[in-house]
Every structure is written in structure tokens, then in C-alpha cells.
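Dear colleagues,

As part of the handover before I leave the project, I'm documenting each prediction I ran so the next person doesn't have to rerun anything. This entry is a single chain, and its sequence is reproduced below.
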Amino acid sequence: MNSGELKGKRVVVQGLGRFGGGIAVSKWLVEQGASVLVTDQANAEVLASSMKELEGLPIEYRLGEHREEDFAGADLVVPSPAVPPGNAFLTAAREKGVPITTEIRLFIERCPARIIGITGTKGKSTTTALLGRMLEKKYTTWVGGNIGKSLLFELPRIETGHLVVLELSSFMLEYLGQTKWSPHVAVVTLIATDHLDRHGTFENYVEAKKNMLRYQTTTDFAVLNEMCRDLSQFISATPAKVILYGLENRKRFELKLPGEHNQLNAQAAFAAAGVFDVSWAEAQEAVRGFGGLPHRLQLVHEHRGVKYYNDSIATIPEAAVAAMESFEPKRVIQIVGGYDKHIPLTAMCAALVERAKAVLCIGKTGATIAKTILDAQTAHDSPKTAGAGVYECGDLPTAMKVARQIATGGDVVLLSTGCASYDQFPNFEVRGEMFVKLAREG
């Protein structure tokens, strides 16, 4: 349906969310003249803050449950990307011939500008932000998708000659694969095991990511990490011109962001910006002052020579290791642990043994991580492991008390858990915000 065809149609938005994932699309659909029903398994009390954002709009609600008849009787269903495509209520809609779309698809189908898409397990948000800054040197640039605000309301202002940079998650790409769409420029950052609770296997996860590439044409561009373990898979997935990026034999950027992984993110952004004739000097000027995004190796406090970094976004072991390696060995007091996604943690523990000054373990996986590290230290009695302290703290406030007790000038207290937050927090943002609050109280 185009925007005009939405007028008077009954549209079901599945999933409002405590953090407002369905707010923008619901507002936009009302603006197009649709009759909107928002349905969510959570009740009105849980969703109160999100509902307040929609106050005064002619929206019907079905909260605390979903009803099959709502989906089967709709003209269009717009699920949150977090809802798996095989969801029983979406199946009921399909069986009745009801079309299913998503917010990002509604935008892409109406966007007149060329689109650069960025995906990956980690690094995609920072790369998206860096690329947006680089492109703004020469073009009117819009940045959205899985980062920032919805661009649906910007559609009347976006012109053919503009550029749009979209961060796209595996959830979004799983749905977009049904449209056989890929962006003009596709950028793939670090790929590692994640979201197995949704995709089932690593192979399925990679297949969702490859939707970024598989529908490109020979006039498009695929910007790929030359160090990616699955590089050949991604190259074979696209007919586009392949541009490789990496760290070796590249001119390095001056960045405020610490860590080699952020240098790699900048190189990815520049490789994509080069498609649009952005020079290295223009790119460097654009990113020199960029201090990073919230919860992504973000310096949030400094007290008596101790720096506190919030890297709550690090929900996989590889990201936690990359964060630790951004700093001097044996100066990092790292907070690790959380929800158990059943991802192997052994390699992260080995890296912590070798480089961390101390490891503060929290959450459901905390005890397992502590035991693994202690066992490794016992088995490998060497100077590398000397002085590495391991503390079972249970929760974040306790971990921060311990960190303040043991930190000395020159140390880094790093929240980079390698695990998801769902055992103790609604999401990584809330975890990060608590860390910031506790750090600044010290």
C-alpha cells in the first residue's frame, strides 16, 4: 500500500513496547488516515510511558493479550521487528491474505534517496554515526533505522539527491528479505554469534544478515571487512562491486574513541563514504571530535585518576574482549556477566585472565565466569596472571563498590559484560544508565 491507500484502512500494530518501539509508526499511520489498533502482550500499567506518547490520538488498544481475530480481520499488520515472522498471530493474518510489513519497510518503499545500509553483530551503530558525519561534508544526509529516531516523518523532506544511512538489525533484515530489497551500498561490520534465541543457529543468523547483499545489482557496492571469518560467504552472496576494508596498510584516523575496533569502524565508514567521493581529509575532519554514542565505550566519569567507561552495548564475548583490549594491560577492572544466551564464554575468560587487573562478576553467568577464570589461573601459573583479582559481586551496585575499593590512579573501571542484560535489567540501556549513575556518585 502507498501512503494514500492507507487512508481508512484498519492497521494492527503488533508490539508497542515499554521503550516505545511502536510509537513512531503508530503516529505516522494515524497521520496517513489509517484506523490503528495497537496490541501488546503487556498491560496498560507496564506500557504507561509509551501510551502517554500517543495520548490524544484516535488509537484503539488491545493490551495484555493478542487476539487472532484482530490480525485476521486487518487490512495491514505492522509487527515489531522483535516479533518472529513465524509468530502464530502473523500466521493467522497470512492465512487470511492480510499483508504484513514493518516500519523500516514502510520507509524504504517510500524513500526517494539512495540508501546505505549497515549491519553486523557489533560496530554497526558507531559505524553508522561515523558514516553519517563523513557524508554530511558533501551531501544532505539522513541517519536512522536501528539508531536514532524514525525517518518516516522526514519523508516529505527527503529528496532524490540526498543520502540515507540506515542501521539494520538481523531482525529487520529477516523481514526485509521477503521484499527482495538490498541497499545501494551495503556495509557489514563484525560478525559473531548472537541472537540464537531468535534465529536458532549461527547459520540462520548469517543468512538474515546476507539479505543486506543478496538483492543488490552490479551497479551497487558491498563494503566488507577483510578480517571477517565469513568473508567468502558474504562475497558470494552479492553481485555488487566488493570493497574491502581493514586495518593493515590503511591511513589511520585520529579518533577520540579508544580501541582498534573503533579504528576499524572508522575504516568501514570511510570505505563506504569513498563511494560518494568523500576524501580522507574530509572524513578525518568529520570524525575527529566524535566522542562516541551512549553505552558504546563511553567515558562517563573520572575521579582521582580512575576513568569509568560505559560499554553496556557489549552483549557478546567478542565485544567485551575488544573493549578491554582498548586499554593498557593490567589496568582494567572489568564488570562482566549477565543473562545466559548460551554463547561460549571461555575465550573471553582467557582474555580476562591475561589482561585484566580485576574481574567483577555479576548476573546469572557471573558465578560460572568467576569459576572459569579461577580455574584458568590455577592451571596456568605465570607472570601474566599475577594480580588478577576475581570477585563474585552478584549485582552491579555491589560490583561498583568493589571497583571503588580496588581502583587506583591510572585504572579503568569498565562495564563491558559480554552478556545480555535481561536477567537483571530490561535492556542494556538501563544497565548502562545505572552504571553511569553509580560511577558519578563515587
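Residues 260-274 form the longest helix (15 residues). The chain has three domains: 9-101, 104-287, 298-441.

All the best with the project,
I.
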